[in-house]
Amino acid sequence: MTSLDSLDGIAMAKRRGRRLEDTPHTQAYREMLAAVRGFQNAVVQANPSPEELAQMTASLQEMQAMLEAQAVPEVERWYGRGGGRDGKLQLVTPQLRIDVVEEDRIQAHTVAEEFYIGMNGAMHGGIVAAIFDALLGRMASGAQGRVCRTAYLTTNYRAITPLNERLDLVAKVESVERRKRFVSGQLWHGDTLCAEADALFVELLPGHQ
Ligand SMILES: CCCCCCCCCCCC(=O)SCCNC(=O)CCNC(=O)[C@H](O)C(C)(C)COP(=O)(O)OP(=O)(O)OC[C@H]1O[C@@H](n2cnc3c(N)ncnc32)[C@H](O)[C@@H]1OP(=O)(O)O
To answer: Where is the Thioesterase domain positioned along the sequence (predicted)?
Structure first.
């Protein structure tokens, strides 16, 4: 373990929350992540032949070894950093595009690709919750970039959330009590309310992981 592995939660979030600067090297990393997204979408849709599967498995194992040889401590990683216009550099949820940021309200949109399927064309419920966690966490952090963690997140599923279609999201601060921020969110497909959530985010204290 290096000294950089033992930062507290606030210091780590401040380091990792910054937008990743643009260089030819980081641009190449963004392009690789976009290719991984494309690959994930292709994986869930294909039933390749045994020969193709063996070929792809060997290629993937080779790429995995290349990545493992370049592994760095969490605080130095580009993954998870702010990516600017294209949202965070991450693969957990569809990319969230933030359209409007106000003190107590955020508007955003996204399009979830095939990788995020649950069944029968509907988005996986865990991904819906993960989208709310990211968006409501951003709302709780506010313009000051408070470092908060989710204490609870309740998601209500009202209608299936479609893939490959524009989805509109809104988040609001409902109330604030000391370190606690109660926030709510809605996910819409056109005029259809697909899901809504309410959550409590608690601001971290110095020394908290
Ligand atoms: C688009 C780009 C996005 C970019 C932005 C991306 C943001 C992403 C955000 C993602 C965040 C995550 O997923 S975080 C990962 C998931 N969450 C976690 O792992 C959190 C695990 N839990 C914890 O670490 C802890 O329990 C905390 C930090 C939540 C709270 O611990 P603490 O700091 O010691 O505080 P504690 O004294 O217990 O509680 C403080 C106050 O909150 C209340 N409280 C605490 N927990 C609860 C609870 N579950 N339900 C009700 N109330 C609670 C207490 O009663 C108390 O109220 P009172 O006495 O003051 O009235």
So the answer is: 120-192
